[in-house]
């Protein structure tokens, strides 16, 4: 089994290291804790506490405007959510947005990473800045920009692209599910492709030149070098990019909030959390929804790591 | 190189100095009169001007500063509720959208109003505005300005239709007339608060109500009238807007601004909208972006009737003033409301910012009539207007209505009403997500 082959590389080194731990490695470890400790403590404070609080509140019937009538209801909130079609619809929509955006971003991001890697040295810095600009734009600002572009009254898309079949002066992009989701995905792709291309660029830069040289000497075509040398050697970087972006995409909120406000069936899971907690002020139900979102993201993360055998240490070049 | 211990001492001194500065900055009241913070909805600067006028008029008793809330009424409520739930004492005065008044009052977020302030707040106020600030038989907020929707029409386009606009018209009449003429009727079909406003006005105009039995403390006991004949008739009218084609393209995302644009450019011959459209059009003429003959072509009438012969119940909106329950100066804040809502200041606000006054006397002023020739119709509309469902659970009811009645083209009169009723009841019983 492949797992037994993997094990000796990591498993055999650790006990040996533990057994013969030198003063140097001990002090390095201490330094590591000293450096990471404060950040770790702050992380615990700002993430673990709210997570714990959300878990606790999710067991209550608790409305923000009526705290005196708070009552313990156990897992009732979870039952309400998991038996409601609205939840499952939001899960489906979120998965759809995640799959579409991550797939397109991976292809586009890879192409952009190649361009950045192979561009002439003189224009490389400018090119990188140009490609990275969308990522620097705040998501809510980008969402508004895309909404205005596709707006029926104020937008320019309908008049500029009326030569495309199906697009007319009166196309209401946010008027039905398909077209609204299309614009949401487009905005997400525009905004986050630079992030994925940056991660892939790091992966591309790690592929040793000697391998490329050897393949070229052996007469391998560009496509063969890409599929047999480049991509297998940057698998870890691709997987990390996919993992980070998928988790990020699954939490999509801003674009949906700005563009459709959840209309046309475009509600995502994060939007559902917002609506229960902030609009309805149902802290109990909202907390349960956010706990379920958290669990879903954890499942996605673990699934990714297990399914694709993502090794984060490889991505660090260890 | 400096000694490390000396460096440490220096660092400590700096830290202590910064902390001392912070602490001294936090403690003690600033010199001068008490500062009242008024959380306002965004406008054209009218509330800030009134704040400075009233500060000056107080004779040094208080100074009012404004703090701007988000643009959308629902977002204003979200911010205020979160702050008040945390007992924020910085909220002395707040501009409140009327549908949220019961929720704030029920939660104890509004400072108790002294009887003399209640009497003063009710004096000379249009009936809908008075209704909007009353909860459980008590006045809990001070009416500031009162909004209502009119039926606007383009005189040149409507003249050939054979409709007598000097008499009340029904929704069916204008829909059929627009269909025959191949033009549009502007209304708000977007999934937003404006959809609730429209639906509620249709139901109330037909003699019905969204909420027929209120329970202040138990949401499960709230009774809904969504399956009653007036509500089914409202659903039929909404649906017919789309079926006849008079709703126009993009109706599912059309808000008040989009409706006003379509009316301005002549795409629609009719629209229901708030009076801000008049101010928008007249400033367009002043700025040279709109031809004067377009504004001259604007006609106005009372909101259309749902049932022939039954006076319409137009939408009621506007802003009421609430005094924060955790304010350090509730008495001064209530004093300030008298100045803010004076006839003089609300007339100024109406003329400069286009927001109709809650005080009836404002509509008799020549300067108001010169700026708003439709002022008498606005006052009449405010006399007939009905508030949106008065309940502490308004957000749930409104969201439930929007979810069920959007898109308007998908409404099936009867079944949609039933599903809306079921959804809202389940949401109020906390058995469903929203």
TrEMBL record, chain B:
Keyword tRNA-binding: no
Keyword Iron attached: no
Recorded GO CC terms: ATP-binding cassette (ABC) transporter complex, substrate-binding subunit-containing
InterPro entries from the UniProt entry: SBP
GO molecular function list: maltose binding
Keyword list, A-Z: Signal, Transport
Regions that span the bilayer: none
Stretch forming the signal peptide: 1-29
Domain of life per record: Bacteria
Biological process per Gene Ontology, one example term: maltose transport
Matching PROSITE patterns: PROKAR_LIPOPROTEIN
One family name in Pfam for this protein: SBP_bac_1
Family: Belongs to the bacterial solute-binding protein 1 family.
Protein name: ABC transporter, substrate-binding protein (Cluster 1, maltose/g3p/polyamine/iron)
Native species: uncultured Actinomycetospora sp
